[in-house]
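Section 5.1 Outputs to date
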Amino acid sequence: LATQFYEDVRNWLLHEARLKNGAEFRLDGDQTVLLSMGRLQINPRALIGEVKAALSRFVALLESDETENRRLRCALRDLFTYELQGVNIDV
């Protein structure tokens, strides 16, 4: 289910602003993702709630764990070396 969500929803929603392979949004019920006849049904209200909760957990982790905070800073520095030229990042 996670792989299908990644391929049919996440990638396409972020890059193409649409869903793929018959995936669709639905507004009824509380469940974030349903699989019906091989097609994903996504509840956007529940999805945004899960995204907000995951982001809150991640921020709390970064605030409480210096090792994780440093790991993120190093990864961002490495990924955006060109964009950060001339910017002093304490890593």
